[in-house]
Amino acid sequence: MKRPSDASRRDGVPDRGTLGNGMPYLRAGAGGRLVFLPGIAGGARPATALDRRVQGGQISLLARHHEVWWIGHRPGLPPDFDMASVAGEYADTLRHLFGDPVDVIGVSTGGSIALQLAADHPDVVNRLVVVSSAYRLGPSGRLAQQRTGALLRAGRPQRAAAELMSRLGRNAVERNAMTVAGLMLGPIVVGNDDPDLLVLLDAEDGFDLHGRLPEITAPTLVLGGDSDGFYPESLFRETALRIQSARLVLYRGVGHMTTQGNHRLAADVRAFLED
C-alpha cells in the first residue's frame, strides 16, 4: 500500500492513498465498517482538489456513524472487462483488506457493481445498500450512457458530459440546466481520453442481473428517487422484490443525483445497518 505524503494516519494506515492493486481509497469516520463503491465518475485518474472534495462530500454524512472506506476501481481496466470482472477485483480487495464480510453501499454504477459483488461473492458482503441503481439501466439511462460512450470515442468530452449529466435532474428544467453544466465542465466530469470510463460504460451497458437477484442472500436496502432519469421506479421496485431479504425506500419527487444528496439517506442507511 502506497503512502501519500499528505495523508493522516490511523493504526499505521493512511486515511487516503492507493491500495497495492492500484485502487484509490479514502477512509473517514469511526464506527462499524462500511465500504462505499462510487458511481461511474468516481474513477481512478489522479484525484484533483475538486475530486477530493467530491469524494469527501459523498461519505461525510455516513462517516458520522461509520468507518467509511470509499474505494474506486483501479486504473488500466482491460477493454473486455464486464461487471463480473470489476466485482471480482473488488471481492479480492475486500478479502485482502478485511478478511470478514463487510457492509457495502454502492451508488449509481457502484450500485451495479455492489449487486454483482453480492451475487457472485456472498462471502465478502455482510449487508448491502444500493443507491440510485437497479439490476439494469432503464431505457433512458442506457441510451444516455451509450451516447456518452460514442461521444467520448469521437473526442467530444463536452458533449459527452452534457449527455451524461442530462439525466441527473428531476424534470425538464433541471435536466436542461445539467446539460448546460455538462457542456461547461466537460473533462472535469468525464476526464480527457479516459479509457477506463469507456470500459465501465460498456460493462454497464451489458449488465442485467435480473435472473441472479434471488441468489443474493445479504440483507439489502434499495434506495431510489421516483424521478430518476437513469432508472424508472419500476426497476427499483423489481430489484427489491426479487432479492430475498430486501427493503425499498422510494423518495418522492427526487432524481438520480438528489437521491444521493437527500437529507434522509444517511439516516435511512444507518437505521438499516443498525437494525
From TrEMBL:
Disordered as annotated region, ranges: 1-22
Keyword Hydrolase: yes
Domain AB hydrolase-1: 34-260
GO molecular function: hydrolase activity
InterPro entries (UniProt xref): AB_hydrolase, AB_hydrolase_1, AB_hydrolase_fold
SUPFAM superfamilies: alpha/beta-Hydrolases
Protein name: Alpha/beta hydrolase
Taxonomic path: Bacteria, Bacillati, Actinomycetota, Actinomycetes, Micrococcales
